[in-house]
Protein: Phage protein Gp37/Gp68
Organism: marine sediment metagenome
Amino acid sequence: MSTKIEWTDKTWNPTTGCTKVGPGCAHCFIVNTAPFRKNHRKFERVGTEMTTGVILHPERLEQPLERRKPQRIFVNSLSDLFHEDVPDDW
């Protein structure tokens, strides 16, 4: 997905969402940007917090393979890839 983030070319989110686990979550990218993004982009859980669990998106797993030229890809800008609900073989 194209992005306006200046230090990357694309974002890729094969998972979205997370679970708040402690005070460090107050500085999380999702927590600080999701309310803004909900107004401009469709989310799977409209009307709910992005911090109520993880959604797996298997249809997105091969997206990086479609790239024809080298690019900087921000992986999982909207999720915790190492969340306990993300299977190890994901």
